[in-house]
Amino acid sequence: MMNNINLLVSQTKFNFALQFYEQINDFIAFTNSESEVYDFLKLSIDIRELKAFRILDDKSFSDDLKLILRSFSKSTTHLNDNIIDSISKSMSNSYCTVIDIESVSEEKFFVFDRFLKKNIEVEHSSLPKDYFKASDTAFVRLVEFDGYVFVLSVINTLERAQETVFVQMVDSFLKENLSVENDKSNTESQKISLLKSNLIDIFFLFSMSQSSFSDYDMEIGANEQSESISVMFNVKDQLILEKFLEYSALKDVIDVEEFFYYVSALYLNQLEPIGETYSTFQNYDFKVIFDRASKDGFVHSKVELYRSIYYLKEYYEYALKFDEVYKNPLIELVDCMDRFFYYEKNLSSSTKHFYFDEDLVELIPDDMSIEFLDNFNTFLEFFTLHNVKISKGKNTITPYFVGQIAAELNLTPTRDVKVLTQSHYPLIELFFNFSMSTDLIELEQDFSTLDLTDNISNFFSFEVSEQFAIFIHYLFNREFLSTFLSEKKIKDISSIFYNLVKKLEEDNSASLEGLNISREDFFIFQILERLELINVNKGIIKSTELGSVVLKHCFKYYNNSKVIEFKKAAK
């Protein structure tokens, strides 16, 4: 009888908390500085969950929560202040996690908390008992009232592939932030505190795990697949791989075509050059292989990088069922998962390949005409029509050909000098160094003539939105810029860009006079204009429709900070 009364009291508290949670949009607003980040996150996370983070997970708002709940109670249930304070404390202790539904009874869901690694009994509460079924997985916010656990919110239900990626990303993130993995000092309360204080980072990881793959041509014919398997795996491993692919297709664990795309990319980039295969794993360490591959730019995005590691881990985990010999490569690949952020930094910093941000691609219409990309096409075409020469002893195009290219692109020099060189035309400087870095052009055997390479077809296999995102990444890649610009020039450009975006954000426009830009730096605005990001008219700068979203994105992710460090950077 007593238990029933306690449960009824807990349910009363929960119902009040749920009623408030459903109306949280009416009580919480974001500041301008916060709204940029939340505008991005709300593409994959309900705005209510983002506002809940601000009021429930930030300790500095605990007193505000009490006041808000008391005010809310006066207009609804008229609960006394002691009960409201109890509800406030429970809501402040709520946290977001991933749960596996192991079984369902008339009264409860029996779940496993993937982040805390513990079994929990969850009341049906507001959810009908058939809301979840055994084997479901969901990203939820849990709250406890007087020993009874409830689902305060279902953020998202997860498919198997996304759930695996997301949970392993968060596990890696938690390990990086906890002092020692499995250390006794890492109590449950410390883990919950870490989950709460880093929830925005975790929301970013969730958005990352949702990112769709680039729509490259990943199709490999059956014969080519068979040939690839025989090259990359020995006979024994081919049999295991065949069973693994059948299992994957049946369980929808991975996409078979993507599996071949990723393992082939890693094999061609790293294993084939050293005479190894996926069956000679005793001769190398996957941590070293992925370290080199990420620096070499063997794939084009962070999602592809993660899937490359994840797919191989899945294969060796399956192979371990047949032979203990596969234990070491599996351990190495689990370590690689933990090092994902390190490899991702290598990949995004590399200047040897075409890298782009999938989130930026989503902002750009594929059918849009971009003057900047048209200019780049004209630049490349010039090499098919002329035997372009390079200056003797210098890694630059000769002044004669620079002049011809500048005329084709309708460019004006940054300075009035007698001999105009490549450095006086920043757009040519950018195109040339990008093309050399990504192996689109190369020196002929005479070491004086430049020509296009076969890699040109790889670049043009990308959609327009992806080509655009590739250039955006390079424009903000310090490693790349430092190959032809001084550190002072890079800082000057960063400062101008920072001031421009802040001004556009605050006033919706900026004046060239107000920004105090020299003639030598005016090229920054010319490039942004050719990227269709701004319009400059009579000295006044305004964002285009595309620029209003892209410039904010660039400002957030490329101005000397990383997405995962947003919370710390915001302090």
Question: What key phrases describe this protein's structure?
Answer:
alpha+beta, OB fold (Dihydrolipoamide Acetyltransferase, E2P), 3-stranded antiparallel beta sheet, 27 helices, flat, disordered C terminus, single chain, 3 domains, 571 residues, 5-stranded antiparallel beta sheet, 10 strands, 55% helix
Assembly type: single chain
Distance between the termini: 50 Å
State the share of residues found in helices, binned by percent: 55-70%
Average pLDDT, all residues: 82
Low-pLDDT stretches:
180-185, 211-222, 560-571
Which of globular, elongated, flat, extended, rod-shaped describes the shape? flat
Number of helical segments?
Answer: 27
Number of strands: 10
How many discrete domains? 3
- Enumerate the strands of the largest sheet in spatial order, edge to edge or round the barrel: 3-2-1-4-5
The radius of gyration computed from the alpha-carbon positions, rounded to a whole number of angstroms, is 28 Å
Task: Assess the beta-strand content as a share of residues.
Answer: 5-15%
Most strands sheet: 5 strands, antiparallel
Instruction: Specify the structural class.
Output: alpha+beta
